[in-house]
Write a structure and sequence with these properties.
Blueprint: E1 29-37, E2 40-48, E3 57-68, H1 75-81, E4 83-84, E5 88-92, H2 96-110, E6 125-128, H3 143-151, E7 169-170, E8 173-174, E9 176-187, E10 190-201, H4 215-222, E11 240-249, H5 255-263, H6 265-271, E12 279-288, E13 293-294, H7 313-332, E14 337-338, E15 344-345, H8 348-351, H9 355-360
Helix pairs in contact: 2-3, 6-7
Length: 364
């Protein structure tokens, strides 16, 4: 296991991949571009499903909308056609249009026939509102930031307050990007990997649950029922924000099965204490790297034996565990950030330096 993974609470019972990240699914890479200057605390994160051109070689995918308060783009075509045509981009709410334009320009540069002799391209951008820490009205995200994140995509990447996660808040502390993976035996002698990456920007502190323990309730009591650094009363503030949950797997699944897998991301989210609040945009997407679907009709469609439905439960368990672990990773790997108008979100590990002792207690 990656050494950094040992510095956060361990979730569940399934083994992780060697990196304990979404990049344990072979071919998947992640890149960030971070803006961190004064009132500008935001950025872009890009997930590449493989090293090639996803417009020409699409990957099967599906989406579940747990709560539809989000302002993402590209979901309708994923739901209809069951494929990804671009890398997956994450950013802030007001950056969606700019990043979608950047995705279109990137695809057209690689395939000049797009929108002329070839079909148009479906950009796919997810968002969360980082307006508490970031001056979202400044519209600071630029097309070049998407290009930089795409160019920097790698199997090893930072987590926490980076990229699209720079300005995000989670359970009234600093949130952001988190990732994890789990290995599941769905068939005798055959193991598949399920990797998760989240953009975590949600939750009420008293609801925070870590490895089944009421961690947030105890932390709220330590803070006298409120959060002085945010000027909030953590006991009464409604759940607001959003979370984007991305799942990748090397298991051979079709889009219908991937929709079922994406739904299980909600199980991992709920385990951390979310109730998918009214003002929260909670969206999950799952994709498989086991095969690709060609853009060009002259190329043959793949002939792949899909995983039998009766063997899919281990993947459901892996998806729930990986998403739960990824949310905890986003919290524990985030640094404290001060942004717009002096607003500050503290790192949860600084507020609870004795978290190991808390989780080790038999009585909580």
């Amino acid at each position: 296991m990656d050494k950094q993974a040992q510095d956060i609470p361990r979730i569940g019972v399934l083994p992780p991949g060697p990196l304990d990240s979404i990049c344990d699914v072979d071919g998947v890479t992640v890149g960030h571009h971070t803006l961190a200057e004064g009132a500008l605390q935001t950025g872009v994160t890009v997930v590449r499903p493989h090293g090639g051109d996803p417009y020409l070689d699409k990957v099967p995918a599906a989406v579940t909308v747990l709560n539809g308060f989000g302002k993402s783009t590209g979901l309708v075509q994923v739901q209809e056609l069951g494929v990804l045509e671009t890398p997956i981009a994450l950013t802030n709410t007001f950056g969606v249009g700019t990043v979608a334009n950047a995705q279109i320009r990137s695809a057209v540069a690689a395939n000049p026939g797009i929108g002329r002799g070839m079909a148009t391209v479906n950009p796919l951008v997810f968002e969360c509102n980082d307006g508490y820490l970031n001056d979202i009205q400044a519209l600071a995200v630029q097309e070049s930031h998407y290009a930089a994140a795409l160019a920097g995509a790698s199997a090893r990447f930072e987590q926490g307050a980076v990229g699209a996660g720079r300005g995000m808040s989670c359970f009234s502390f600093k949130g952001g990007i988190g990732s994890a993976s789990r290995v599941a035996c769905a068939e005798p002698g055959v193991a598949y990997t399920v990797g998760a990456l989240v953009l975590a920007n949600f939750g009420r502190l008293p609801n925070l649950t870590v490895a089944g323990r009421p961690f947030g309730r105890r932390l709220a009591q330590r803070l006298d029922g409120g959060l002085a650094q945010a000027g909030e009363n953590a006991a009464i503030v409604p759940e607001k924000g959003s979370i984007i949950l991305l799942l990748a797997t090397d298991a051979p699944l079709d889009s219908r099965q991937l929709r079922r897998l994406s739904l299980r991301a909600g199980a991992g989210l709920a385990r951390t204490g979310s109730v998918f609040g009214h003002g929260s945009g909670d969206i999950a997407l799952a994709f498989s790297t086991a095969y690709t679907v060609p853009q060009l009709a002259e190329q043959p469609m793949p002939a792949v034996a899909m995983l039998h439905e009766a063997r899919i439960d281990p993947l459901f368990e892996a998806a729930a565990e990986a998403c739960e672990q990824a949310i905890i990773a986003a919290l524990w790997r985030a640094e404290s950030v001060t942004g717009r108008d002096g607003h500050r979100r503290a790192a949860i590990r600084d507020a609870a330096p004795d978290w190991r002792d808390w989780l080790a207690r038999t009585e909580f």
